Records
---
Amino acid sequence: GQTGKLMYVMHNSEYPLSCFALFENGPCLIADANFDILMVKLKGFFQNAKANKIESRGTRYQYCDFLVKVGTVTMGPSARGISVEVEYCPCVIANDCWNLLMEFMQTFMGNHTPSIPSVFGTKHDSIYSPADTMVQYMELFNKIRKQQQVPVAGIR
């Protein structure tokens, strides 16, 4: 009789030995890669969303202290968008380097440079972690999913 909460299981090639479980409006759990096997064993408690796989695959570039990853976001067999991830490697406090990141992104993204991510607002002066990156990917994927929902037209 309880309404279910969504949990997204995510993987990142930068952290091949980790698995990330993001709960709807909640925390991000970081587990080892065998977490998927555990979820299969708990299938009586969790329902797998069929055909809901979304991923970003692309190329990783390094330019001096910046790491740039450009990927194609696919849902099933079709491309749905593009992801651009930029990291300034020497900095671990996200808010300390946001202006530098903006300036760097403007050199190749121009007017399409994003505004400050919501995860920065909650981090303040704390250390940025891989879970923060996964939260940002989840936000991107949810935006793409919502854009793909086509309103149903009524027939009279």
---
Amino acid sequence: MRSSKQTYARGHRAKGKQQDNSKEFEKYYSGIYGDRWPSLREALIRPTVHSAVANGFIPSASAAACTTAGLTPLLSVGPLHAYRRTQSSGPYPSPPLDPASALRAWYWMDLASVLPVLLLQPRRGDVVLDMCAAPGGKSSLAAQWLFGPNQQQQQQQQGPAVAAVGAVVGAGAAASSAGAGAEAGPAREALAAGAAVASEEGAAERIPATAEAASTSASAAAPCCSSSSGQEEAAATPPPASPLPLPLPLPLAPGKLVCNEADRVRLQRLHRVLEEYLPVAARAHVEVLNYRGQLYWARNQAARYDAVLVDAPCSSDRHVLQQAVAGAGGGGAGGKGQMAAADWSLEGCKRIADEQLQLCLAALRCLRPGGRLVYSTCSISPLQND
């Protein structure tokens, strides 16, 4: 059984049709893209350039391993750190194992493949579904956003509670430093009733928290009859109370990642990738399933997920072209780069598009109110990207 995602999707084709489909392929895409098609075809034929996406669960070790391998930084977004090779040709070095964690240092990916995860924006505490997860690169990256040790990312994603606390504290500090006096009363009341601030004249004002405190403040502000009485009143006045500490929000639960793959051969690779790139503590929050998305999820998992990624099986036209060129250059089965019906057919594209629509409809039903769905393919066919 073939195990690539594009082959799995291209199983939908007309029975008994075994002639060369290269002419149909060329006619279809030249009709869509017109004069642009020759240059676009040339770009698709070029070898795919992969980037090393560092393992965010071992940031220091992965960065050191990338430097040792001669990789240079390419992109950094949140917990995502991607590197590239300095040489443009030759074999890609195998990702080494970190001896301390027994995890792979990086994962080779087409850099465009990280965009769906960045658009999905999984946040700590979310329940996320990767409906077509194999081979596992996007799943491992989503797990880094959900369960990774990057404290800055977690702080940014702890929701409006932290932002509200920061706004209140910032407003109180700004009012104190600016000497706004009583005009900044609401901000100081939010910090603590009766907090002392410096007025424009430099005198200490006390914000009355109660009627008794107000009368005390008024008597303290009145003119003194003599120095002795002023000393007695000053001695009777209690020192300013320190602001009460604000309660910090409890840390969010790590959430959950559900990885689904319908093809059993690809499912084995998904398991292997998760074991090699995720620590045990993170894998405890990951569930791997083997269902056909359009048949199972809409009926049994409705309104359960904060985010759903549908990296849908597709015709993978780039792979079709590259395999055709490889067959032509290496004397393969095609001999002249011919494309068999198993690789591509227009009827197969139409059937795949119908399956993708069913996947999207099922994913929409899985979402909770306010959730996010990201759909992506590796096809340039409008049928599969409508």
---
Amino acid sequence: CSWSVIMAASAENVNINTDTPLYQDNDAESEDSKSPVSVQNGQWQTYMSDRTPLAQKRTWKKRDPVSIERSNLVNICKLVVKELIESSLKFGRQLDSDSVPLQHFFIVLEHVLRHGLKPKRGILGPKKELWDLFQMVEKWSYEAQDITASVRDLPTVKTHIGRARAWLRLALMQKKLADYFRLLIERRDDLLTEFYESGALMLADEAIVIMGLLVGLNVIDCNLCVKEEDLDSQMGVIDFSLYLRNAGGDTSPDDSPEQSDMTTVLDQKNYIEELNRHLNATVTNLQAKMETLTTTNALMKEDLAIAKNSILHLQEDNDRLRKDKGLPTQQQQEQLDKEAKKASRISVIGCEEEMQDLKRQLEEESAHRKQVEKELELQIQMKAESEMAAKLLEKDIHEKQDTIISLRQQLDDIKVINLEMYRKLQECEQEIFEKGLMVERLQEKTSKISSMLINLKNYSDPNYTSNTKNSSSHSGQK
């Protein structure tokens, strides 16, 4: 697309005389028929008849094609982001999926993220997809967890690249795309090197330029319906004619005040959004504090109810103890106090001693009640401890009984094994004795057989027979 647009622009800027043929039509030699005719216009004449030596001509510097590709991506990304922001400012409304600059932006951003991405090698090879890279962002950003979970739950998206495209769209609507991009760049050495080749754009310095361009996209608002888009299909094509036009011919001097007003409105909008974020943060903190206060209040109410119940139980125990000892209960004591007060009002002097006695008795009763309560608590604790000790003893007894039974069984098994071993030992000794007798017999037999073999060998030897005959003859002569 870019070459077609450049060739079209060059064809419009150059005036060519169509009436004049480019080659002569004569009966000359083959070399003359192929030589171009000098056009009277002059411009083509200079192109065709340039006989400057090669040493004096300007030569292009050799550059790395990977660096050229990175610079091309950065430049087209600048153009697309600029056009996207200008279209948003010009129309002053939210951008939807039908916006052509927005479509071009996602195409270019995908090219940027896929530049130098390592291919997946084999079925069991490591994961080298953009979606796997985007899923790691939720480890460092809590806000990325929401869009990652929503992308996982999309029923219309089936492929990894489709999920990655949906994630980019949701991040742009969330106005956190630059922040997520920054998180990836900060972990360039330990994370991105596993996904990208050495000359990739995400590992180069141009990635910081891309991040700065993405920061400028926070001023636009997008309303994208991810469920209705076909994100699994192939990407579209960028129309470069929108970005190769003359910048001065499209704008007019009347748009400058509107442009300034729009920038002020956008600045105010950004300030309000930032203020809204701070307010939302404070609201969440206050809500958390309110929840903690409500929980503490509920716990304090429960503690108060438990304390009231314990007080009521203690009062009932006190009344019962007073009844057992023949003393008045607390209500009766209160009535007596009221009667005493009434009597004191009638005769203050005569009742002071009685009041003192009553106070003394009350103090004694209260002290006695405290002692009884302490003794009761001690008895309750001792009872609980004795019950616990009894349970532990029972458990220990059961365990010991089980161990005794198991040991008895093991002892019986050992006795049986010992008897069998003793029986086998006796049998082995008897067999050894019998075998010893057999060995002695066999030794005797072998000695006899060896002597017999010696005799047979002597009989079979002729020298031996001649010697024996000579010895017999000599003995006869003698």
---
Amino acid sequence: MLRVLLLTLSVVAIADAELCKPDAQNAFKVRLSIKTALGDNAYTWDANEEYLFKAVMAFAMRKYSRKSTTQISNVLLCNVTDRVSFWFVVTDSSKNGTTVPGSEVEAAIRMNWNRINSAFLLSDKTLQFLKITSTLSPPVEPSTPVWLIVFGVVLCLIVAAIVFLVVAGIQQRKKKNKESSERENLEEKGEVTVTVENGIPCEVLDLKAGHVNGVFAADDERFTSL
């Protein structure tokens, strides 16, 4: 019985080795830069970390296919190096001796990329699936719509222009009132001043002293008797 069990395990190991090997069909190479990402807090890659990777990949496949057929045992790792790189495949539990198409594995990875990175405290640059280019993160959308920002700027400019016109009008009116008040004061004092009528400066008569015409003054001296 023991021999049969050992023989069965050997056959399974050989079959797994044929499925998971460098550049095998539907196989993916993974490279992790743990020390680069975490520095002094870097953890050691060991059998427990390999088990976590298998569990995360099984989760990604189940999440993508919405089926519970993928198990941790369906994820095979091989050619693990000390610099933390390895190859892996996902076997198809419904078909013995076959692997899940690479397109499905890639789609599952893309769908759960952030979850995979988070599990190992890494990023797209420090946890790389060499055959899969990292997806660009969606552009950050501002919390306030762009059209609302533009509308606010235009509204502020309009309000500023209205305030400027109102202030300028008030200052101009004050200036006119001041000039009118000064003119009235000068007229009350009887002082001669110059006003502008239709753009032509005109002399205002001194109301108290009057204004003597030189021609008539000469006639008065000639005809007036002593």
